[in-house]
Amino acid sequence: MMVHHRPAGNLYAGESIMDDNVRTSIHRVWRRGLDTGRRRMKAIVVKDEAAGTAGMTLAERPEPNPAPNDVVVEVHASGFTPGELTWPGTWTDRLGRDRTPSIPGHEVAGVVSALGYGTAGLSVGRRVFGLADWTRDGTLAEYVAVEARNLAPLPGDVDFTVGASLPISGLTAWQGLFVHGRVQAGQSVLVHGAAGGVGSMVVQLAREAGAYVIGTGRAADRQAALDFGAQEFVDLQNDSLEDVGGVDLVFDVIGGDVGKRSAGLVRAGGTLVSIAGPPEARPADGLAIDFVVEADRAQLGEIVQRVRDERLRTNIGNVSILDDAVAAFNPAERAKGKTIIRVRP
After folding, report:
1. pLDDT of residue 38
2. In a 10 Å sphere around its CB, with 0-12 CB exposed, 13-18 middle and 19+ buried, how is residue 334 labelled?
3. What global pTM score does this model have?
């Protein structure tokens, strides 16, 4: 039975025929939802934008309450993208007001522990994964409140660690290729950062779609990019990018000079898709698109199904626990793959 939290003044309005035991059960669950804000939880918080990941600290914060159409997720695993410490939403709310200390992290895999008023489509105890809102406290915590529509069911045979690695990388790759890039079989796709979290997903999805994939990156990334499915690799430090020739689609995660040079490689009618901000140069006879990834339940379902049937491989690097998260995000050497924080065993 799905139970929704309701405002206190209307808890039982129009329910005079409800069985007393059912009413008591609803009230008990509803009170638990209210009480979560009075308990404390462990979380990673940031207060100083200039400090970057070095400014992260482990602290106690109040557990969140679910707003209407929210769920509270008991976090089992969390993903974090260092670039989010430069996003305005990490530091201010939708009205531009300071909201520090804030909890970063926007990728989550866990179990629904409470429902907000009016929430539909998910139930308490359901395994879920997805994206937390950009301007609210995030997932590097024991609990997080998320709009229900931003989450998808996580199948029981997919580990929470894997689930937390998918939302940003998977949705960014999916939307860049299929929504904005409209890739088709037989086209050629140039993927920058092909061994990275997003790039490795782009390579795999583009290959599955029937595209010819050229990956780029550092020399040390060559084998990883090829293992993910790139058919050629360009070492951006030692090879000439221009030798690639014309391509139908460029997926740019780097920007800057690489992005400008890439625009000149796009064939007539082709597309430059960027997640590194507005492109500084546009194709002479094509499109230039920059976008911010959006939560999408159906797309999350498509992505996790590909993981289940081994058409899509995750790119997980270090897995750490919440108590050690600060050190994990400030590694002594360059991290390979996506760092995941396992909040619960």
Report:
1. 60
2. exposed
3. 0.86
